[in-house]
Amino acid sequence: GLLRNIWLADGETDRRRALDWVRSSYLVYAGLGWGADDTGVDFREQIESSMDEVEETAIVGSAEHIADQLSAYDVDLVVCRMAYDEPPRSALVEVIERIGTDLIPAVEASA
Predict the structure, then answer these.
(1) What is the reported pLDDT for 26?
(2) pTM of this structure
(3) Are 66 and 7 in contact (CB under 8 A)?
(4) Which of 7, 48, 63, 90 is packed most tightly, with the most Cβ within 10 A?
(5) Mean pLDDT throughout 70-99?
(6) How far apart are the first and last CA of the chain?
(7) Which helix (H) or strand (E) holds 55?
């Protein structure tokens, strides 16, 4: 299986906002001392490079872009992490709906 931070975004403004939410969540984790020991990411020692890595591994964009990125992994299960600390509930509901209406068909089409 694969766990990825995923957010469907329309345009660069939406993409940047989603990536900021991802970064914010991990900064909260770092502040609480929740390092990701098993992943090799050392939040306390290398916070900025860790945040850059978190951002680089997030998959944010159109349904087609996300489906294309996911197709590079040889897995049967993808867990989409979307529950960040800052998005308003309406944005979270919208992205969950779009995963069903836009992303799932795009993933199925790329299989």
Answers:
(1) 78
(2) 0.80
(3) no
(4) 7
(5) 91
(6) 16
(7) helix 47-57
**The pair of three-digit structure tokens given for residue 87, joined into one six-digit string:** 């998005």
* Element (DSSP H or E) covering residue 107: helix 104-110
For residue 10, give both structure tokens.
């329309």
d(CA 97, CA 75): 23
At residue 75, the 3 state secondary structure works out as: coil
Edge-to-edge strands of the sheet including 78-81? 59-61, 2-8, 78-81
- Read off the pLDDT of each residue in 39-54 and give the average, rounded to a whole number: 70
Alpha-carbon distance values, 111 to 1, 26, 31, 73, 107 (Å)? 16, 31, 40, 11, 6
Residue type present at position 99: I
- Residues whose CB is less than 8 angstroms from the CB of residue 111 and which lie 6 or more positions away in sequence, other chains included: 71
* Side chain identity at residue 27, one-letter code: L
* Token pair recorded at residue 43: 């939040």
How does residue 75 score in pLDDT terms, banded at 50, 70 and 90?
A: very high
